[in-house]
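Thread: Newbie trying to understand structure tokens

Hi all, I'm a second-year student working on a class project, and my supervisor (Dr. K.) asked me to get a predicted structure for one chain before our next meeting. I've only ever worked with sequences, so writing a 3D structure as a token string is new to me. If someone could post the tokens and maybe explain what I'm looking at, I'd be very grateful. Here's the chain:
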Amino acid sequence: MWHPVLLAEQVGTLASMTTGRFILQCALGGGDDQFGGMGVPLRGRVARFESTLAVLRRLLAGEEVTTDEPLPLRAARGGPLPPEPVDVWIGASAPGAIDRAARLGDGWIAAPDLTPAQAAQKIEEYRSSCAAHGRPVGVTAIRRDVHLGADRADAWRVADPILSHGYRGLPRESLVVGGAAEVGRAFADLGDLGYSHVLVRHLGADQRDVLASYERLGDLRSELVGL
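---
Reply by user tm_fold:
Sure, no problem. This is what the structure looks like when written as tokens:
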């Protein structure tokens, strides 16, 4: 959806403000409402995604770019340049999209609605695609909607009212809710499947509950990394 020169300048600016590698998360997207809001046609988005990513990488590497795809560019440059190379993690669920992530990305992001059984199937699809393209398996991340309570009862005190009214259409099996033991086990199970990262979106609505969950997740992360 974005102009590659503008995107390169935004990514370069953010990367220059941080320490360590900047991670660009991206995906093909869909829906006339999303694309229409940006004045971009839905049709042809696969080719535009690939050409935009190729141009973006060249701009972030400091190259001067002249091309007609995805848009006519003449001697274009981006700036500021990232102090380190930018990693690209591509979200994908459909087989063709997972294959694209394996071919073009430094990592793959699995969708938040995957049940554990589906998550196991999708990571095998990604591994197979990496092998087919002769590429090493990159970062394997999965997004999860999470609430870590002081204990199991406290976690469901927050989660139950939200889930009873419906929550984003996600199956309960895909959610990670509980005390440190339950959440730690869920993360460890994902690690056993081969996932290297869990991207957390909090399902709590009250800021105090969310901040408390964040703090507990920090402690849990330290414990899991130390195992």
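A couple of things are worth pointing out once you decode it. The mean pLDDT is 95. The first helix runs from residue 4 to 16. Feel free to ask follow-ups in this thread.
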